[in-house]
Write a structure and sequence with these properties.
The chain is of the alpha/beta class and 244 residues long. Helices cover 34% and strands 15% of the residues. The radius of gyration is 17 Å and the shape is globular.
Length: 244
Amino acid sequence: MFHFLQKKPFLSDLIPSGHIDIHSHLLPGIDDGAATVEDTLFLTRELHQLGFEQCITTPHIMSSVWENTPKTIDNAFQSAQTALENRRNILSGFAAEYLIDPTFVKLFQQGQLLTLKDNLVLVEISYLNPPIQLYDILFDLQIAGYKPVLAHPERYPYYHQKFNEYYKLKNAGCLFQLNLLSTVGYYGVEVAKTAETLLEKGLIDFVGSDVHHENHLKAFSNRILFRNTTLLKKAIDNNQFFRK
């Protein structure tokens, strides 16, 4: 699938000036992303230099691990905004990355979800196995008025050999958000192959940086593994939908 003899562009080359990001962990001290305000300052500065103009940052909400709320996220966002005063501030807003679990069901039943835009909510599932009631939850989520955007579908290994599951998820109402670092093999070759196939099949709607730390930033200097970047560029351009 990959053509290693032909030099491919660096991922950083594909980031257009004015890029809009919808998945990152830039707020200080509330999940496994930026640990301090200084980390937030560093990450936002470097992302801006890469071409990022606006970031809707998305801290984890994960029961028993990262039990964030709209209030804890807003507090961290306000701390970041204060620190970024008089600096180049690319933090345009916040939402959350919700793990689909029983707590998530309670949250959307109560109408308390933070959205990327309108009714679009960023969700993820376990890397070990999908929830038993996944499709029921997705149905109920949409009945409650939300539209799921599934984060990094290429990173769920149990779907790699069951590709039809991706079509089932799309038919169940999911939009797909590809992680940019998947395109350079950051998460492994199998993830990169799946990412390319999802693009080729027209299943990817948006992209996200999913930046947590400096090593993620460094990976933007790696070369794209795909034989053709046209569809990836289109997915990157789709993020302009979220411009404020």
